[in-house]
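Field reference: sequence -> structure
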Amino acid sequence: MKIAILVAVSENGIIGREGKLPWHMSADLRRFRRITMEHAILMGRKTWESIGRPLHGRTSIVISHNKDYDTGHSEVKVAGDLDEALAIARQADCDQDQAFVIGGAAIYELALPQADRLYFTRVLADVEGDVSFPEVNWSEWEVKEESHHTADEFDEYDHTFSVYQRV
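Structure field:
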């Protein structure tokens, strides 16, 4: 199973503020849904709590040091680490070609060395926040797709959607 990271990052590296996304970008949310549909999504406890519910059409797996963590939803699985989360994803009733890591910063940092793909939204602005994406060695990645989009009434900032493949 391949590991893909899906993230939106501002120019100054911010991915979150007070447990939420620090922007409103409908196009990015639609892209997230389209890309992750029918796949396993792996996330940390704080990301799970910010979402607060299982996402339709996806297998949600929460990574937590607390193996007794209760998500409040029987269909949401809990794993103690990334390897266990991937093992659960391999057994899940979903598309098993790749699992998507969707946050937060600590989980991204764990997954980055093993990731095969990055689905990266670059938010073309500096924003305030309290959670940053880990440093990426961009020499290890090659752009496979890229498209630029302008801010409008539904998307707060100009942004670029990119897909990177590990070289």
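Note: The mean pLDDT is 96.
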